[in-house]
């Protein structure tokens, strides 16, 4: 038994769990399936060879140092002139400080269980280790002055990269995403968002980007949305699942918090966009026949399989570049949605519930410093739904024949 072998036991005896899931209230903001993946991806490879009663604070510190070194490797490979090197980290993201805190919380909980239940060690080294504080960078709006300064820096970076590569072609999107910004969190003005949606109308995932831009879905929530959770008649969608990316692999899990499980009201134009998306998906399904993969997801690959969230991000960056816009992260499109709602006079409580925040205090703390600039940036503008360049109506708003009924809706249990 665990209690009869106290000396020399390897750390994996307590990091692993018979069910593959380690209960961890301290990291409960992560989907449980994702939290359990901290064990095989980080804890076992770095600490699994060590005896439990000899585990030291320095051993855990070395694990995080190695994670940070791998973060540096990812960043370095992303900027490599060799396409194969860049491709090797396409689906890898640097581990954030917040994720490191969750990894430490998972380990601390496991070791606390070993102390309290089986007395396998005398103290908890994970509780002693200090990590950098989880700080939220201040969100800034892309004002005209900031855009002008960034564009100058972007052009200089393109020239420098061209010289460094001896005149060979430079991928402009690489320079676009790597040029420093005033803050890690940047927010578009209403005019910027409109330009992006005009560009995105040409893309088969336009409805996905519109949902994020106007209703503030998280990337994983949009990728994990199923047709049975879409009610076009009632003009609502229900968020019950998300697709998340961990170490390059896609996992399906529950939303980030209990508050993230929510029903979101849609405007008429977004409802029409989703209906047009359903029609197009039916056409793709009929064209492929038996080769079609029926996953039930709203947003899918052309053959029906689920999306990889990283590909959604890369396509977003490409569309933003084509639209001539300053860069933001895809998650910042969600921030922009919140700021637009607040600037339009939507009550803070409604914004909080739409975004899936646990409290309106968090929503207010995050966005009240941003939305005045957003409101000023959009003053005097027409905030109606965007149209194609040249005034052509968006596809979602056009009438005409329909190739099928609305998608099957099933109200999920809340």
From TrEMBL:
<dbReference type="InterPro" id="IPR011010">
    <property type="entry name" value="DNA_brk_join_enz"/>
</dbReference>
<keyword id="KW-0238">DNA-binding</keyword>
<dbReference type="InterPro" id="IPR002104">
    <property type="entry name" value="Integrase_catalytic"/>
</dbReference>
<keyword id="KW-0233">DNA recombination</keyword>
<comment type="similarity">
    <text>Belongs to the 'phage' integrase family.</text>
</comment>
<feature type="domain" description="Tyr recombinase">
    <location>
        <begin position="183"/>
        <end position="380"/>
    </location>
</feature>
<protein>
    <submittedName>
        <fullName>Site-specific integrase</fullName>
    </submittedName>
</protein>
<feature type="region of interest" description="Disordered">
    <location>
        <begin position="372"/>
        <end position="414"/>
    </location>
</feature>
<dbReference type="Pfam" id="PF00589">
    <property type="entry name" value="Phage_integrase"/>
</dbReference>
<feature type="compositionally biased region" description="Basic and acidic residues">
    <location>
        <begin position="379"/>
        <end position="392"/>
    </location>
</feature>
<dbReference type="GO" id="GO:0006310">
    <property type="term" value="P:DNA recombination"/>
</dbReference>
<dbReference type="InterPro" id="IPR010998">
    <property type="entry name" value="Integrase_recombinase_N"/>
</dbReference>
<dbReference type="InterPro" id="IPR050090">
    <property type="entry name" value="Tyrosine_recombinase_XerCD"/>
</dbReference>
<dbReference type="InterPro" id="IPR013762">
    <property type="entry name" value="Integrase-like_cat_sf"/>
</dbReference>
<dbReference type="GO" id="GO:0003677">
    <property type="term" value="F:DNA binding"/>
</dbReference>
<dbReference type="GO" id="GO:0015074">
    <property type="term" value="P:DNA integration"/>
</dbReference>
